[in-house]
Amino acid sequence: VTYAIEAGAATAQRAALFPAVFWAASSLTRIGAVPVARYVSTGHLLIGGISGAIVCSALFALLQSWAPMLWIISISLGFFSAPLSPAILTVPSYLHPGQELTGQEASVALIGVALGE
């Protein structure tokens, strides 16, 4: 928000909408990812999400003062980051096949994810 205002890419009122657009895209994607996750592996979801976030970050670095790009990046980052939080809970089962994730381990993972967001 602050960056968009200081760069002159958006007014304070418009810049305040960037987080809302990000979270709306993230929420809608998480809802849509549920049926998709039945057909796409967790590994592919993680790779796609991380790759998409990297591309968005690179585009932001290159086109940061162009106002339409800020909107596109806000939506895209919400889209690509959405499946990362739930998918991270499945990583222990890949590292230790047959071992179930305990409630304490899930709590630690979710706290880590929340701190990262």
Properties at a glance:
mainly alpha, 117 residues
Account of the protein in words:
This protein is mainly α and 117 residues long. Helix content is 76%, strand content 0%. The protein has 8 helices and no strands. It has helices at residues 2-6, 12-15, 17-36, 42-62, 67-81, 84-88, 91-95, 103-116. α3 (17-36) runs parallel beside α5 (67-81) and α4 runs antiparallel to α5. The relative contact order is 0.14.
Summary?
The chain is mostly helical. It has helices spanning 2-6, 12-15, 17-36, 42-62, 67-81, 84-88, 91-95, 103-116.
Give the N-to-C terminal Cα separation.
16 Å
Shape field? elongated
Number of helices: 8
Gyration radius, rounded: 16 Å
Order of helices and strands: HHHHHHHH
Q: Kindly state the mean pLDDT as a whole number?
A: 82
| Helix percentage range | over 70%
Oligomerization: single chain
Question: SS-based structural class?
Answer: mainly alpha
Summarize the helices and strands and which ones pair or pack.
Blueprint: H1 2-6, H2 12-15, H3 17-36, H4 42-62, H5 67-81, H6 84-88, H7 91-95, H8 103-116
